[in-house]
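Retro notes (design track)

What went well: tokenization of the new backbones is finally stable.
What didn't: we kept losing track of which sequence belonged to which structure.
Fix going forward: every design gets posted as structure first, then sequence, in one message. First example under the new rule, 295 residues:
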């Protein structure tokens, strides 16, 4: 059984590698057509756009062309050495893949690091982005940091310690999901955990999470100045119990972009699209389809 059919046997849709300049991104499509809607995942161990959005995508696929794009170093996409300007580097390659597919004026639904890459893309390739939803993203340094010092210590322990001792394990992924990604500890889906463990064995994720301590100590790209040039409307959708940043920081993202909305979702953490998929989809679809009267 090939690696791709292993993923498909665990419920992942079939996809293909799409040229993105000198590299290639894995893209899976779901839906019967309609407005192109790009999903971008977070940076947790083994995360892809399918593992992040699998319970939510069916609510979009009824009348949208859903493109599940895996960024460099995630899933089956190419493994590369990322530069310091990592969000813009990822955004550039996502843009190249979408151009290869002939996509323009897409809606974007993005979690965590995917939202940061998408904000850079929206500023630099405005023709590709109609509207943009970001959840749990930290695209600028001002005000960034965990919700409490205690949670910061927990993040450093679980992420920084991912490769210590016996090395990466499926149970370490489970602990990160339960304690860092979800508000509801019972939200872990065993099949999705198995899929994330499979994806972690691929070259890109293995190289990234094989140096988790270095990842914790790296300084992310600061997009604040670039964000002020984003033309597309942006919805910052935040889980009330997201451990990675405060509600005030989330609102500051909406305040920084020229056309920002902010919504705080209760009973949800960093992965609200998995914990409250129906509510997430209905709220996001309503915002994406909203007509805004401008003066």
């Amino acid at each position: 059984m090939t690696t791709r059919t292993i993923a498909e046997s665990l419920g992942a849709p079939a996809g293909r590698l799409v040229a993105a300049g000198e590299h290639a991104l894995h893209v899976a499509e779901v839906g019967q057509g309609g407005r192109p809607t790009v999903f971008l995942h977070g940076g947790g161990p083994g995360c892809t756009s399918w593992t992040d959005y699998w319970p939510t995508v069916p609510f979009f696929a009824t009348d949208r062309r859903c493109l599940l794009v895996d960024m460099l170093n995630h899933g089956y996409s190419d493994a590369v050495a990322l530069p310091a300007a990592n969000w813009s580097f990822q955004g550039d390659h996502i843009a190249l893949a979408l151009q290869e597919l002939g996509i323009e004026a897409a809606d974007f639904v993005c979690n965590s690091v995917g939202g940061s890459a998408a904000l850079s893309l929206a500023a630099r390739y405005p023709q590709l982005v109609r509207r943009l939803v970001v959840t749990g993203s930290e695209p600028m340094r001002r005000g960034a940091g965990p919700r409490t010092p205690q949670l910061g210590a927990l993040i450093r322990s679980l992420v920084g310690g991912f490769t210590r001792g016996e090395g990466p394990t499926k149970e370490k992924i489970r602990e990160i999901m339960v304690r860092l990604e979800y508000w509801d500890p019972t939200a872990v889906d065993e099949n999705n955990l198995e899929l994330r463990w499979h994806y972690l064995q691929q070259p890109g994720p293995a190289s990234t999470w094989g140096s988790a301590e270095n990842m914790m100590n790296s300084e992310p790209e600061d997009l604040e100045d670039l964000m002020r040039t984003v033309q597309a409307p942006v919805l910052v959708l935040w889980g009330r119990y997201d451990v990675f940043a405060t509600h005030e920081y989330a609102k500051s993202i909406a305040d920084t972009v020229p056309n920002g909305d902010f919504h705080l979702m209760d009973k949800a953490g960093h992965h609200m699209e998995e914990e409250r998929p129906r509510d997430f989809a209905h709220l996001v679809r309503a915002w994406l389809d909203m007509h805004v009267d401008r003066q």
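Added context from the reviewer: The first strand starts at residue 15 and ends at 20.
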